[in-house]
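input
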Amino acid sequence: MPTVSAQIALVLADHVEQVFGVMGNGNAYLLDAFERLPGVTVTPVRHEAGAVVAADAYHRASGGLAVATATYGAGFTNMLTPLAESVMGGIPMVVVVGDQPTSGPRPWDVDQAAIASAVGARTFTVGVDDVAATTCDAIEWALTSRTPVVLAIPYDLAAREAGASVTRAIARPAPVIPDPADIDELVRVLTAAARPLLLGGRGAWLAGAGDALGEVADLTGAITSTTVLGRGLFPRSEFDLGVTGGFGADGAMAAVGQADVAVVFGAALNQFTTRFGELFGAETVVIQVDVADRQTNPRVDRSVRADAALVAEGVAEGLRSQAAAPSGWRETLDIPPLRRYEAGTGVAPDGRLDPRSVAERIGELLPADRVVVSDGGHFLGWVNMFWPVAAPDRMMTIGTAYQSIGLGFLSVAGAARAKPDSTVVLATGDGGGLMALSELETAVRVARGRGIAVVWNDAAYSAEVTLYGRVKGLALGPMLIPEVDFAALGEAVGAEGVVVRAMSDLDRLASWTAEPPESRRFLLLDCRISGEIVAPYQQEIIRVNS
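output
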């Protein structure tokens, strides 16, 4: 019979191809078992937080079940920030960790199940005789609830022979079927609308609703828009207003406010998406289609609880049967000027680079086949304003649900494993980049010549500087960072580092993109930007908080 650890690996191997982790006393036998299994790739990371973030990124880019692993105690608690993020992000993940022995806690043990519960993750603990069954339970809970779970291996059982325990079929989440009356009402409302808008989020992408929503937009003449995590959802970009909320262009957001009907598919409508309540016009009827059992924003006038794809398909069928003429609204709008952002000036008044100019130029030079992974920070505005993405699985902002920074470098390995033929483009700040330095080596090692890191280096925590320093007058000292040579740090772990002090320094990105991926190194662009240029979304936050 296999050991307890080997049995866990065998069950998981039926459902996953990638595992991310750091080896320690509590999971050494598990990683050994994974290494001996065909079809499973183990990617070692350098910090336990990196295991969870990489697994999270892998899921977001591939749709597959995520698996991360670490030892007990400090190894597990090092995972907590990204575990909270993955819970809030609704990521199906199994986090396999060591735990205290069945004889009771040792002096260095903590109540890991209670700690996991505090951030919203349920713990499943294996025993000798129920290893396969408990592992199946954990997988099923993660998939059906769309949430991370912790699978704990008591220390004294890790190398013990497992008892007889059989696997079983894993239930998959069933779609929420729409009420036909809700479909009929949506068809009626959209047919009568003069200025219809469809707004899509990550939930619509996960449901596979993109094509059906595109058809609904064509049949109704609706303009479209997305959340940050839904970028690239709609098939016809010529009628799409781009990202909604603080990252959206002012002209585009003004058009959203003119809609008389807005149907929101798979988006929670948080305060940032809704511009702190100012996105929709006073007369706009807002209808939310989501699997949540209640509306997620008080601005919602009507809720439809159902799978986004089934609703979109049903509405499209109803519209076709009525043969109603499209509204014609979108043809009256000149979309490109509405989506235009204020251009940069090249060099800011303080002599450093204008981040708008840098972002726009990088967006022009990046490979078309790319996945963008972004840390949290002020620079998020530039990434979402100037870097287009082809689909929602090619844009991720891990850390934003929990309002964390420092998870950027940690995301690269997961995205690279999910889409090995694409270029992974990381955006991080100097503050978040320094937090995540343990995974710089992992990013370079895994992505190799298909990886780019753009470090927005303004020698400060600029989001804090703009609000707390300049507006509220708090001491600047704790918000400033001595300028760090990230290019040199990248070189130290095998990347090619380029300090970008002039726009012409970005020419190296153009030549790098033209080189074969097999012959080039991971490229790190250390962009010395001005902190005096404030992103529009940050201006919005300042206004609300002032």
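quick obs: The chain is about 35% helix and 15% strand.
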